[in-house]
Amino acid sequence: MRRIVIVVCVLILAGAAAGWFVSAPDRLGAETIPERSADLDNGRTMFFAGGCAACHAAPEASGDAHMVMTGGRKFETEFGTFVAPNISPHPDAGIGGWSDLDFVNAMLRGTSPDGAHYYPAFPYASYVRMPVADVLDLWAFMKTLPQSDAASAPHDLAFPFTIRRGIGLWKRLHLDSDGAPVIALSASTPQLQRGQYLVEGPGHCGECHTPRDATAGLDPGRWLGGAPNPEGRGRIPNITPGGKTISEWSEADIAEYLSSGFTPDYDTAGGSMVEVVKNTENLTDDDRAAIAAYLKAIPVVPEAPR
């Protein structure tokens, strides 16, 4: 019996050690950062394509305040309440004290400067498709924004989701460090490639519009095919050519919606799309057209039964 107990204990310890090893944060090294001058115009594009203000501006912020990344918005989910942090360039309350490498690791590996895992409510599983140059341009642009000295509030999560180390196991399943495209398009043009990048990468559209599996990973077989609202109210629509509404829209209709928020029927964007349009209206006409072209070219996903 003593030998059995010893063997069981050894197996438990070995399993715990293995779990600790495979859940360890994966960080990029200093060699990742190239010597180059930042492109602030591209950084601005990445900022609006990524919808940073949609999460990190203060609740109800408008006008100039919408460009202050003070944080504080709450997102109610089945895992608990996530609170967007202050990501303004304030050196203490925000992320102004970060290095280039700190920012790149946050965006592409979902790890903090001290090596902790970020929760995937921060959509780094999409941002991983961004090249380092675009991430650094974004960082350079964000450092030009106003500072906020507001303290970041903690998340309010239930056990076991409070154990950040467990996120490392989720990343093993769902974080593609190679940044490969989600789907293979039947045709390829520079416009479609640009649209695919904007939607699948910085735009992180799939994070809301794609259903998730039992481990909270995106289901690529129903890419952009609509999903339950992660905040529990209603449903995020299917935006593939099989979607009930968007299937009747032209590329020009989609591009106009991303610019003005008006649908072809002269309805207006509602819910979380209001914040999305606040960002996409700042993209170029060419980028909005590229997004529209991509959305019309992706595989059809039939409407899910309600």
Topology:
Elements: H1 2-22, H2 40-49, H3 52-56, E1 74-77, E2 80-83, H4 100-109, H5 124-127, H6 132-142, E3 156-157, H7 167-174, H8 190-200, H9 206-209, E4 227-228, E5 235-236, H10 251-260, H11 273-280, H12 285-297
Antiparallel strand pairs: 1-2, 2-3, 4-5
Helix pairs in contact: 2-6, 4-6, 8-12, 10-11, 10-12
In N-to-C order, the SSE pattern is HHHEEHHHEHHHEEHHH
**Outline, from the CA principal axes?**
globular
How large, in whole angstroms, is the Cα Rg? 21 Å
Q: What does the average pLDDT come to?
A: 89
Write down the domain tally.
Answer: 2
Class computed from helices, strands and strand pairing:
mainly alpha
Question: Can you count the beta strands?
Answer: 5
Share of residues in helices: 25-40%
- The strand line-up of the biggest sheet is 1-2-3
DSSP strand content: under 5%
Could you explain the architecture of this structure?
The protein is globular. 38% of the residues lie in helices and 5% in strands. The chain has two domains: 153 residues; 125 residues. The termini are far apart. The protein contains twelve helices and five strands. The protein has a three-stranded antiparallel sheet, with no helix packed on it. By secondary structure, it is mainly alpha-helical. The N terminus is likely disordered. Helix 8 packs across helix 12 and helix 10 crosses helix 11.
